[in-house]
Design a protein that fits this description.
Elements: H1 7-12, H2 19-31, H3 33-41, H4 43-54, H5 58-61, H6 69-80, E1 85-87, E2 93-95, E3 98-100, H7 103-114, H8 119-130, E4 131-132, H9 136-145, H10 148-154, H11 162-165, E5 174-178, E6 182-187, E7 193-197, H12 203-217, E8 222-225, H13 227-233, E9 240-241
Parallel strand pairs: 3-4, 5-8, 8-9
Antiparallel strand pairs: 1-2, 2-3, 5-6, 6-7
Helix pairs in contact: 4-6, 7-8, 7-9, 8-9
Bound molecules: zinc ion.
């Protein structure tokens, strides 16, 4: 539960108010800022929060409440799991132990879970381990079905691409990174992901987060990312480009 990248665990931990924890909690809270902020901006999640608080769910499924068909579907999905929903202190929504991702960040979340190109089942399970949102399955299916690397992994008659066979011997010797509103760095040995919410994609903040991850796990010898990130952040963080460049 003390893993610094495990934002959901941190989130689920009740605030102790202990002085010694204060600095840490503040930092952790800031790292959640994007999800907190986006949840506040998300019309559907705000309606659902209201329904959780008041216990009045009828308005959620009334036809006039949703402005778009997409919102209507989203509310319907949330309504179906209403007994599992709760509100966190930060104003985010949990489904069981999983954080409900506001729609503005869902594609980002899918992209992060998909960054190691493990195919449909594993991409879904990576994502479902920590988060949930109504269109999770459909979004992963669309992403993976349009990804040549994942198709190769899934095809039974074809050999898996080198990238999946080539598992490093030790944890954190090699990691794969994906950059965006969330920075995900996944250990290629264990597939353990570190997720950091960043307020900007500027090199300064990104490098600070990478340093934090390396302070926890040790020096990453080789960091694999896509050419776009390589161009942006340069040799400071990128040692090798990925072979699969689907973007
Ligand atoms: Zn893929």
């Amino acid at each position: 539960m003390n893993n610094p990248a495990d934002y959901l665990s941190r989130h689920a931990r009740p605030a102790t108010g202990k002085e010694e924890q204060e600095a840490k909690e503040t930092e952790e809270y800031i790292s959640l800022a994007e999800i907190v902020h986006s949840s506040q901006q998300d019309d559907c999640l705000q309606l659902v929060k209201q329904a959780i608080s008041t216990g009045n769910w009828k308005s959620i499924i009334s036809p006039e409440v949703a402005r778009t068909e997409e919102a209507r579907q989203q509310l319907k999905s949330l309504y179906h799991v209403k007994d599992e929903l709760a509100i966190t202190e930060d104003g985010c929504i949990l489904r069981g132990a999983r954080l409900v991702i506001p729609s503005r960040l869902t594609q980002q979340a899918v992209d992060l879970a998909h960054c190691s190109h493990q195919g449909m089942v594993k991409t879904k399970s990576h994502l479902r381990a920590k988060v949930w949102f109504p269109s999770l399955d459909v979004m992963v299916e669309n992403t993976v079905q349009n990804c040549p690397a994942c198709q190769t992994v899934s095809a039974p008659d074809r050999p898996a691409p080198i990238i999946t066979e080539d598992i490093p011997l030790y944890p954190w010797h090699r990691a794969s990174a994906d950059f965006g509103q969330m920075l995900v760095v996944m250990d290629d040995h264990s597939r353990y992901p570190e997720v950091e919410i960043v307020s900007s994609t500027g090199a300064g903040e990104t490098i600070a987060k990478l340093e934090k991850i390396m302070a926890t796990h040790g020096l990453i010898r080789e960091l694999i990312t896509d050419p776009l990130s390589m161009d942006k952040y340069g040799p400071m963080i990128c040692i090798r480009r990925t072979q699969n460049t689907e973007r």
